[in-house]
Design brief:
The complex is a heterodimer of chains A (94) and B (290). Chain A has 94 residues and is α+β, with helices and mostly antiparallel strands. Chain A is built from two helices and six strands. In chain A, the strands form three sheets. Chain A has a two-stranded antiparallel ribbon. A two-stranded antiparallel sheet of chain A has the order 3-6. A two-stranded antiparallel ribbon of chain A has the order 4-5. In chain A, strand 4 and strand 5 form a beta hairpin. The two termini of chain A are 27 Å apart. In chain B, the strands form four sheets. Chain B has a six-stranded antiparallel β-sheet with strand order 7-8-9-15-14-11. In chain B, helix 1 packs across helix 6. Helix content of chain B is 33%, strand content 26%. Chain B folds into two domains: 129 residues; 142 residues, RNA polymerase II/Efflux pump adaptor protein, barrel-sandwich hybrid domain (OB fold (Dihydrolipoamide Acetyltransferase, E2P), Beta Barrel), CATH 2.40.50. Chain B contains eleven helices and 15 strands. The chains are: A alpha+beta (94), B alpha+beta (290). At the A-B interface, helix 2 of A face strand 13 of B. The complex binds iron/sulfur cluster (2 copies). One iron/sulfur cluster (SF4) binds next to helix 1 of chain A.
């Protein structure tokens, strides 16, 4: 199950999810096995065998799957910027 | 004094970083009294290395984040004294690792640099940072907990107004301008036996949600997500030799670091109190099998 909000801000407004560098990824699928939130989707018969299907399922500020990735193909947005954005959004909502 | 390590490289033959791990082990072995453990042979003839792994501090050299050597050490219940991941070291040094399995001059230079670092490395005790002139804030040794149980797993959450949490399962206990920070039972239960702690650097400025080191088990690596912003003024050195303290109690003897707070009023906005975190924890525990 995923949360709909993060600290009161609608989850879809927060840009936080893994980015796959397809020039590095070797489709070992370790990240898929690791993450319990159905963020990734495997597509056996397509050229990109792995996509970030549900970015909003990703836990804000988690980067755990990148630590399972041998070729270092996963990256994330800048935490400082995302934090600032969340604070701004909270201001707007007041 | 010459080092006497037991060196466990991943020796990944089909990856450049794995080949570099072997090169590093060779270089250290040649210039110290260390012994190399072959990960392949270790699997079939553990007894051969029993003496060595018992008597010497174990240095694990992983090529990449797949952490094959660390996982082997975890499986064999070995205590890790020092740990190197080649791809991480390359990143730190701003170096690229080539694709060829035969090491070129760049890769050899990287191996050399890492080997020298290992040979120079003082033991953790020796390099403990002295906190001269720092005021010492006394944090309580015991807290009161609310407990949530699922199957055989027990999740404690400490009560008290000075406790703050983030949704990434890390806590801060705030006294004045100081905070002690750690992970919650949810992290420790999900990882199970923690075998390695990479501390944050003393003096480092950390933003809220920034990284405060890592803890690692055979299962996974967990990045400690700082609930507060500030400067790292103390690290729980005990965890370097006894990371299992985090499993025993991640709030008391298993705390991670202390920070001098820089903007707590602001940080607070994005923190949860005991009650909110306890509800989130219950939800998490119910929806995942640990
Ligand atoms: S762990 Fe890394 S290399 Fe493996 S599938 Fe995921 S992104 Fe690709
Ligand atoms: S960062 Fe965490 S929640 Fe997000 S995809 Fe990776 S493991 Fe899953």
């Amino acid at each position: 199950m995923s949360e709909d909000t993060f600290m009161g801000v609608p989850r879809e407004k927060i840009d936080w999810s893994p980015r796959i560098d397809y020039s590095k990824c070797n489709y070992c699928m370790e990240c898929v096995k690791f993450c319990p939130h159905q963020v990734f989707e495997v597509r056996e018969h397509e050229e990109k065998k792995l996509i970030v299907k549900n970015p909003q399922n990703c836990i804000v500020f988690c980067r755990a799957c990148s630590k399972t990735c041998g070729p270092d193909a996963l990256s994330f947005p800048d935490k400082g910027e995302v934090t600032r954005k969340i604070k701004e959004l909270r201001e707007e909502m007041k | 004094m010459s080092k006497r390590y037991a060196l466990l490289p991943c020796n990944g033959l089909d990856k450049t970083a794995g080949c570099i791990s072997r090169e590093i082990a060779l270089k250290v072995e040649e210039r110290s009294e260390s012994e190399i453990i072959c990960p392949v042979f270790f699997r079939v003839a553990e007894a051969k290395y029993r003496q060595s792994t018992q008597d010497r501090p174990l240095v694990v050299i992983d090529g990449c984040q797949t952490r094959c050597a660390s996982k082997l050490a975890a499986e064999k219940n070995l205590k890790i004294a020092e740990k190197i991941t080649v791809t991480e070291e390359a990143k730190k040094r701003g170096q690229q690792i080539g694709a060829s399995l035969r090491l070129g001059s760049n890769e050899l230079a990287l191996a050399e640099a890492i080997a020298q670092q290992l040979l120079a490395e003082e033991s953790k005790k020796e390099k403990e940072v002295k906190r001269a002139g720092e005021e010492v804030v006394a944090f309580p040794e015991k807290y009161e907990y609310e407990i949530y149980t699922k199957d055989k797993f027990i999740f404690r959450v400490p009560k008290g107004e000075q406790f703050f949490f983030n949704e990434n399962d890390c806590w801060a206990y705030v006294i004045g301008h100081r905070a002690r920070v750690g992970v919650t039972d949810f992290v420790q239960q999900s990882l199970s036996d923690i075998m390695f702690f990479t501390p944050p650097t003393i003096g480092a400025e950390v933003e809220q949600f920034g990284e405060l080191g890592n803890i690692e088990s055979g299962k996974a690596v967990f990045e400690i997500v700082s609930p507060v912003s500030g400067k790292v003024v103390a690290v729980n050195d005990e965890l370097v030799s006894s990371p299992e303290r985090i499993n025993d109690n991640p709030y008391e003897k298993g705390w991670i670091a202390e920070l001098e707070l820089t903007n707590f009023e602001n940080d607070r906005e994005l923190l949860l109190d005991f009650k909110s975190y306890f509800n989130i924890l219950k939800r998490k525990v119910d929806s995942f099998h640990v």
